[in-house]
Fold these 2 entries.
Entry 1:
Amino acid sequence: MIDIHFHCLPGIDDGPEGWDEAVALCQMAAAEGTTTLVATPHVLRNEWLNDDPADRDLLILKLNTLLGGQPSVLAGSEYFFSSDALELVERGRWSPLTYLNRTRYLLLEFPPGEMPSNAEAIFHEFSLLDVIPIVAHPERNRLFASDPDRLHALVERGAFVQITAGSLLGDFGTGPFEACEEFFRRGLVHFVASDAHSLDLRPPRLAAARERVRRDWGANAEGGLFEANPEALLRSERVPWSGIGRGTA
Amino acid sequence: MSVELLPHRQPRSRIAERYRAFRTALLLSRAGGVKSIVFTSSFSQEGKTASAVNLAVVLGQLGKRVLLVDADLHRPRLHEIFRVSNRSGLVSVLAQDLSPDRAVAKTEVPDVFVVPSGPLSPNPSGLLSSDAMSQFLEFGRLNFDYVILDAPPVAAVADAFILGHQTDGVVLCLHGGKTPREHVSRARDMLYRNNVRILGVLINNLIEDAGGYGAFGHDDRYYGEQGNYGEDERAASALRTR
């Protein structure tokens, strides 16, 4: 399996605290079948600025050395959306943003309870700049959970959606769980990722989520979400599967 | 397929034909001709933007140079329809002194150029009634054969009246079978009271006799039907009788 959202670089955000935990966390993912994961530390969020991509590259280099390729860790980031998004994108190689596996896919999260009013306008500009935003865990955002039309408006402008494995398993309560179900029914789910942070509180659980998707939404959805889509993403190709729930699964 | 740009994508479609008929009638509606036209509606979702876009398309098909301006500074849409950047536009010209030629973007439709709204402004009416706006319209009239403005609905704000005064007049767009009679007459009264010339009334989604339309499939759900009346008084009577 491929996990496109994973906090595994120690000491730079709210992920693992030290190298031991970082390695154990990645190995936990490998044990349940993850072969490749994308390191997505928070960027420009709270005290975790992490605005030098080269620093992250060095950490990934060390982590891959410690892991010996099981799993293999790729570069990425989880960008906390801000109104200067376009300026950040235009900084090019000097930008603090690292696209997933250095493709054109940009993982971004919104503040927990809102969607900035200019987000739709900026997503429109993203599409003209050939940036493909992936909205991280909207099911845990109160606005998107209660009003999926707002999420749909972003998808219409070229965005994709990543939900969190734990949300599908009820780890975050009924709100995010039910929001996931509604997103599935509306064809608003394109990726499932672990958003793993730690061994105890936020472990990966991607295999269990995959099982749940197969049971609830069928083998077609499972194949699209856990194989075809993340594989295409890493190759910088167009995401092939955008299912519309049970009827077509 | 969405109805915007349909006369461009399917120039032989029935809808394209409707817009060409509308074009002909509109251009003949006023002594001295029509060069600058404002599109508005009573409320939102009545097809004013699609109508403005499609009129621009069929004018472009005549080889006329058309400047299509997103003057709906409240809910701008032209940048999305034409997939152009909205980082600068009309607001930048009016409030930030951007040279008008730099706000003009080319489109996929030959001879049709677009000025998107640009960044959101807290004071659209103030901008649209400024000297800068009349200078911008002058720029449009000098450099293009037609200037078409997509304005907000009349129920919400006064912008359509403001623009109506600075142009040859207004086309009022209605949604056939949906826009309530009271809304239509209220919109008409508001335009009259503000001394805005109504060039015509365009009814979208008018349900006509369904016979013989099958070959057009789902595209036939939507088409422009024009009611064109050269003088305001006749427009009013036509509205009353519908």
Entry 2:
Amino acid sequence: MASAVLLLFFWSYIKAQKFLSVILSLVGLGISIWLFSAVYDGGMLVTQSGNWSAPFGISFVADTFAVTMVLLAAIAGFAVSVFATVSMNKARLQFGFFPMLHFLIMGLQGAFLTGDIFNLYVWFEVIIISSFVLITIGGKKAQLEGAIKYVALNLLASIFFLIGIAFLYGLTGSLNMADLALKVQEIENKGLINVTASLFLVAFGIKSAVFPLYFWLPASYHTPPPAVAAIFGGLLTKVGVYAMVRTFTLIFVGDDFLSLVLSVMAALTILSGALGAMVHQHLGKIFGYLIICHIGFMMAGIGMMTELAIVGTVFYLVHDIIVKTNLFMVSGIILKINGTQNIKELGGMYKNYPLLSLLLAIPLFSLVGIPPLSGFWAKLFFIQGGLESGEYILITFIVLGSFLTLWVIAKVWVEVFWKKGVNLPKKAIGRYFHELRQREKWVLLLPIVFLSIISLYIGLGAENIISLSQRIASELMNPAAYIENVMSQNQIEL
Amino acid sequence: MELLLIFIIGLLHAAGIYMLLRRSMFKMIIGLILLGNGVNLLIFLLGRLVKGKPPVIDEASKVFTEIYADPVPQALILTAIVIGFGLQSFAIILIKRVYKVLETDDLDELNSTDEEI
């Protein structure tokens, strides 16, 4: 079942055509929805590849958390796929942009579904090798420099991850996550377990750009074209958060030292991301720093480790994937219209394109979390969870981070949309927005409308998402069902 | 044998980290390769070393009767080597390209991404 979703993305490898890519993303989205509804109604699905039963074979586990993430990845992948058909230039498409995009999404979905820690490593490698190609495609000077930093840090993260796996295997003799969850509990040597957990924390921390390890992100995310930045900003950092949630709820449970480290890192991540976003003038960099800031919110949820806080983290993940993908596409539209992303030079968007501005306002303001837009509910849960467990300092940082985000977004809004526009000198960025044909304009705007509707739904129909997040959180906090499902014998055959 | 491996792993890690801390891009890649090899050996060591006992079950019995060499770490290392090889070759090509475009090998000069554009 899982492989149906995965294999689908292999097909597009042969023909890299816009049309095919969009159709296949749509089919992928359809299959993800089907998988999601199947798991939501019928409970967890487990399959063992190679017909070896757990813990010996490699399991793929579709619990509610995994399929939600798969669905989100498919939505974001579909939107970016549509967006890229117009926004990318020909040379980049010829170098295999679409196949790589699909490999990336395949890797992401594999990473979400796998139930084996080494298999997770393999999927991470699939993700990073395709992201390397995506980030270097086109090869301008700044882009190559960003790519070097990105590649070096990610290679290092993989090495850390591998050391962690080596220790874990040496300690337990198992790689299956459900089996590990049982065996790690039995080990007496808590110090060594903490060392291993810290190695995983560093590896996933580099991937998801948390406080001391985030420097590669602002140096590289604004360099590739907006379509690539959208999929990176929306999904790549979140896969690190997903892996963190998985390992720290399933394998390394309930250690005070780790919770403390996570909380401190979360607070500093929020602060440094927000401050970074305040000082920069380039839209891509501002959004890059905002990613870091909001990764901090999710980390804070993991650090508190109460069920309410995990609800917040899951809700925020859902909201953030949609909104961040949308934001980078918005910055792509602004680049298309004006030829620059420097907010000091921009202006007059609202006067020239009032309807478009209103549309672009939706992702911008749902990021801040002005009720009833989507960001608000997640923060509510963080603060509730924090009050419950008495983490007042962390709450202060979350509130501070929200205000600083508000400040940054208000600044962007005033500078880009309300300020009096000046006529900008023409630059060679391909065709400008008003030079595009009517149909192409719509294709550019369609994914933004699509994602905006989804984020409006997350905000206005919050009760559905909340009940989904609560279900995921209770599954995560009580891993017994997960373990039992993986280890039991009556599973679907492929 | 274990002791020798431990020293080799330590040496590879130390050399790799030293190379990573240099300013040259090329040395950075060498550092990453050394580190990667060190980690592969580490997996090998942590999978317990057993000499001359292949994981093959006797015809007479159904299960293993004595200690055997664990094949899983070897499979892991094989996978890690293949993946590492692919990534390293990509990184080397990337560095060559960066060197051509920027005409420098010094990581400290790669700072144009930090400027306001």
